[in-house]
């Protein structure tokens, strides 16, 4: 977690699978879709749904490329946090830490 990050609870990120996706992505440049799917032990449809929510919020971006190791024409999908997504994840984690430490959540910056 980034020191000094203003805590801001984020409902989009907080959903359990989306939080886990963001957790996987926060320490890497990008991950291939299948790696994320397998790490979370979920199916493609469920992962696609949650990645769509994160993409629509501007927190995640996708990149597609051909795979040199595949004989068919399917492409690999790479997932990464955007700069906005990275900031939002760190702020959300700071909010969770503040909550765990007994902070008055209503008094945290960025809370309505």
Features:
alpha+beta, 47% helix, 14% strand, elongated
Short précis:
With 112 residues, the chain is α+β, with helices and mostly antiparallel strands. It is built from five helices and three strands; from the N terminus they run ααβααββα.
For the residues shown, what is the average pLDDT? Answer: 88
Class from secondary-structure proportions: alpha+beta
SSE order: HHEHHEEH
Assembly category: single chain
Annotation field: number of helices = 5
Distance between the termini: 23 Å
Major sheet details: 3 strands, antiparallel
Number of strands: 3
Strand content: 5-15%
Helicity range:
40-55%
Shape: elongated
Rounded to the nearest angstrom, the radius of gyration is 16 Å
Strands ordered across the widest β-sheet: 1-3-2
* Uncertain residue segments: none
Question: What does this entry look like structurally?
Answer:
With 112 residues, the chain is α+β, with helices and mostly antiparallel strands. The protein is built from 5 helices and 3 strands. A 3-stranded antiparallel sheet has the order 1-3-2. It is elongated. The two termini are 23 Å apart.
Provide the fold topology:
Blueprint: H1 11-14, H2 16-25, E1 31-32, H3 33-40, H4 44-56, E2 60-66, E3 75-81, H5 83-100
Antiparallel strand pairs: 1-3, 2-3
């Amino acid at each position: 977690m980034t020191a000094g990050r203003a805590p801001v609870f984020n409902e989009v990120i907080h959903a359990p699978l989306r939080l886990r996706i963001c957790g996987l992505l926060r320490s890497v440049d990008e991950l291939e879709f299948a790696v994320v799917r397998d790490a979370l032990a979920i199916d493609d449809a469920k992962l696609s749904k949650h990645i769509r929510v994160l993409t629509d919020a501007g927190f995640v971006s996708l990149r597609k490329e051909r795979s040199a190791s595949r004989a068919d024409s399917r492409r690999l999908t790479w997932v990464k946090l955007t700069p906005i997504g990275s900031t939002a994840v760190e702020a959300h984690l700071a909010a969770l830490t503040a909550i765990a430490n007994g902070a008055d959540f209503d008094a945290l910056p960025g809370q309505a």
